[in-house]
C-alpha cells in the first residue's frame, strides 16, 4: 500500500519540473522577440525601445 503514495509524490514532482521548464521557455521567447524587434527597428532607422516600453 505504501507504494501508491510514493508513486503519487513522484508524479507531483514531475509536474513541477514541466511547469518551470515551460515558464522558462516563455521568458526566453519574450526576450528573443524583444531583441529581434529592436534589430528590425534599428534597420529601419528608428530608435530602439527599452525593455519596459516593449
TrEMBL record:
Highest taxon, organism lineage: Eukaryota
TM stretches of this protein: 20-39
Keywords: Membrane, Transmembrane, Transmembrane helix
Record-given protein name: PiggyBac transposable element-derived protein domain-containing protein
Organism encoding this protein: Phytophthora nicotianae P1976
Lineage: Eukaryota, Sar, Stramenopiles, Oomycota, Peronosporomycetes
Amino acid at each position: 500500500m505504501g507504494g501508491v503514495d510514493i508513486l503519487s509524490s513522484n508524479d507531483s514532482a514531475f509536474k513541477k519540473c514541466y511547469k518551470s521548464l515551460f515558464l522558462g521557455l516563455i521568458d526566453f521567447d519574450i526576450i528573443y522577440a524583444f531583441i529581434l524587434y529592436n534589430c528590425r527597428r534599428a534597420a529601419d532607422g528608428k530608435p530602439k525601445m527599452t525593455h519596459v516600453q516593449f
